[in-house]
Predict the structure.
Amino acid sequence: PQDQALEPWEISSLLEEMPDHLSALVACAVYAGLRKAELFNLQWSDVKEGELNVVSRADHPTKNRESRRIPLCEPLREALSHHPRRLGCPHIFSNPDGRP
């Protein structure tokens, strides 16, 4: 069988059924096309002015070692706005102890 991309309505339905902490993670993967390492290295300071700045950091570089900016579409902006922030933790997606 061939792989098929999800239709926009299927993505919306999937995200609506997930808990907020998972829907934001999946929304970033689907709408921004982020890789696993990029997802877990995202920081709240990377979200600004309607863009998601995927930063290649010295300790966690991106695959091609280049940073890039991705416009935030409305579903992604919505998912991030409902995602809880962990006090004192800069990462968007982290464990309870604050590690990405």
Q: What stands out?
A: The chain has one domain: 8-82. The chain has a mean pLDDT of 86.
